[in-house]
Design a protein that fits this description.
alpha+beta, DNA polymerase, domain 1, Cytidine Deaminase, domain 2, 2 domains, five-stranded mixed β-sheet, 9 helices, 5 strands
Length: 229
């Protein structure tokens, strides 16, 4: 039987440790344990959190889990899943709000962090459009197309229509590769060329096309693939 967290030295208990030293000093399991609050018979909340992370393979995969997957673990239920999902959604909304407050290029890493949290670990392909105003502030991030684990059908005409409806001056598009390989396919490259040409007709710039996976990013702009004749 493990000792309950309340019997630990005060400065080693996750909540007190966070209060004294800040959230960055806590391990993934300790942070998760704060949301779990209690463990199960024979396991305190930290050990239960460690078991959850081990079961899913990583913290990001746990956060992307469905309710059905999550409640397969003994000792956790729908209530705990909804609490964790609510906290995760707050993080994503905070990142998105940050992009709306300043130029998209003032923090490229912020953009990548946002996209990673949004689509990086989804089990199916999703195509996002980030509509930008003339100051390159985010107007809206829209999930425009959704597909299978290997393929998403994208219609450039719909992208133009949605960009014009928002009076966007520029656009960033992004999609994920659930396979884990962020390198672009020939179809990805052809789509990018098509979008650049199509958007030029309505005086909207395509600034970048990101491919996101659980293991990294690919930027068409950083790779010099946005320059087409």
């Amino acid at each position: 039987m493990e000792s309950p967290i309340t019997s630990w030295p005060k400065n080693e208990q996750p909540r007190e440790k966070l209060r004294l030293h800040g959230a960055r000093c806590l391990s993934d399991a300790e942070l998760l344990a704060i949301f779990l609050r209690v463990g199960v018979k024979g396991k305190n909340a930290v050990t239960l959190a460690q078991d959850l992370i081990h079961y899913f393979g990583s913290l990001p995969r746990l956060l992307a889990s469905t309710a059905e997957e999550f409640i397969q673990i003994h000792g956790v239920g729908l209530s705990k899943w909804t609490q964790i999902q609510a906290a995760y959604e707050l993080v994503k909304r905070s990142l998105e709000d940050g992009l709306a407050q300043k130029s998209i290029f003032s923090s490229p890493e912020h953009v990548k962090e946002f996209l990673q949290s949004k689509i990086g670990r989804l089990p199916h392909e999703v195509f996002l459009c980030l509509y930008l105003d003339s100051s390159l502030h985010l107007i809206e991030c829209q999930e425009l197309f959704r597909g299978s684990i290997t393929h998403t059908t994208v219609y450039p005409r719909e992208i133009l229509k949605e960009a014009l409806a928002r009076n966007a001056s520029a656009l960033i598009v992004a999609h994920n590769h659930p396979s884990g390989n962020p390198l672009p396919s020939n179809a990805d490259q052809e789509l990018t060329r098509t979008l650049i040409h199509a958007l030029q007709w309505v005086d909207i710039s395509l600034l970048d096309h990101y491919i996101v996976s659980n293991s990294g990013f690919f930027s068409f702009s950083e790779s010099g693939l946005m320059n087409v004749d």
